[in-house]
Amino acid sequence: MNCDVVIVGAGPSGIFTALELLRCSSKKKIVIVEKGKAIEKRHCPKTKTKQCLGCKPNCHITTGFSGAGAFSDGKLSLSYEVGGDLPSLIGEMKAQELINYTDGIYLEFGADSHVEGINASDEVKEIRKRAIQAGLKLVDCPIRHLGTEKAQELYYAIEQHLLENGVEILFDTECESLILDKENGVCGGVITSAKGNAQEIHAEKTIIATGRRGADWLEKLCAEFNIAHQPGTVDIGVRVEVRNEVMETVNKALYESKLIGYPRPFKNKVRTFCQNPGGFVSQENYDNDLAVVNGHSYKELKSDNTNLAILCSHNFSTPFNQPIEYAQKVGELTNMLANGHILVQRFGDILDGKRTWPKELMQANLKPSLPDAVAGDITAAMPYRAMTNIINFIQAMDHVVPGFASYETLLYSPELKFYSNRIKMDENLETNVKGLHCLGDSSGWTRGLMMASVMGVLMGRILSSQWESCS
């Protein structure tokens, strides 16, 4: 197959690259390779079985059109301060302009016009005051919440728009490798596999946009093809669940409280992420049957609980250069203790140095929203440094949100965020391998739905401009 641009991964960055090329009236042939299924065929059986069935060959939550993050809760962070380091590459003003433009596209395809977290009320001032007193920073970030079910409708509309306008999407197709002219250092496309049949797709431009799901795979490509990069960050943490009453003030005033701290004694960066008022804790399955925890938030369906992630950032230095493998080992050890499931423990039990028992969960005010989570001992698997950071951060959070560090507060593990090694790229988002570009979370430059989409818009503009100047 021959085309002008092949995009590996139908997550936000890949989707918005194709969208922007169409919006720029490009007539180039675009092919998207996606190992998962079309969005209308992504159905997690757990909604009926209440138990994770470990779908093969791919988890419906993490793979398929729209990627993993968009299929969970669909939050669009509307500030350049949130979502990774892309602003340091392109500039803060340009990043914010692109966010505003990309947000407009989401609105065109049906996103809710309501924006959370823009109320500069006395409640927000009081939350900020308590955060300062606790040694935490409250990051102002307006949020447009799509909702899990509404996000599926929106991305289905985008999927159909791409197909109707000539974009070819190869579902259930895995990218095996690159087509590379090693003598000249030029990428000429990809080698794919579908149902055991290999196919070469030759393209002038190759874009890798595989998201966190493909971080490990991209790391291997970097080693094989000498793609310039540097070790990236991994986030290791837990998902915390409390009753809605505990988070009521924050939920109403901010919807999502983005708090950052550097707790003693290690002073590593620890942050909250992906807050879901009235949400549900969920399980995702990655390669090698690795089960990790996440959170869903629906527009209509609500629980009695609020969940959010607390993540500790790990940056490694020489000689260690395998941060993704390190995080995976932490996850595998936790899965071992939970017999392949998610582990849950009460915060008070952690402080008391004891495991949590199933009957204790049933006797509390707070009932787990992930019914098949296994009660146990997270501290038996979590590294000491990360666990200490998390405990101290939760206790600091208790000053901001009284009751957050209560005895029955639930911690689920493992919550892992894999970010690819930071790919070195120029102002055109091109790697040291000519014709090869890396986008979104797989590039190590973005974290989250909006900024990955923004990077796709930027890529689409760059390609359109390059082709116009050549015509």
Largest sheet: 8 strands, mixed
Task: State the total count of DSSP E strands.
Answer: 21
Percent of residues in helices? 25-40%
Q: Helix segment count? A: 14
Runs in which pLDDT lies below 50 for 5 or more consecutive residues are: none
Radius of gyration: 22 Å
Average pLDDT score: 91
Distance between the termini: 23 Å
Strand content: 25-35%
Question: Any overview of this molecule?
Answer:
This protein is globular. It is 33% helix and 26% strand. The protein has helices spanning 12-23, 46-49, 69-72, 86-90, 92-108, 122-133, 148-164, 215-225, 244-253, 323-337, 347-352, 358-362, 384-400, 449-470, and strands at residues 2-8, 30-33, 75-77, 136-139, 143-145, 168-170, 174-181, 186-194, 197-208, 229-230, 233-243, 258-261, 270-277, 280-286, 290-296, 305-315, 343-346, 374-375, 410-418, 422-423, 436-438. Strand 1 (2-8), helix 1 (12-23) and strand 2 (30-33) form a beta-alpha-beta unit. The protein has 471 residues and is an alpha+beta fold.
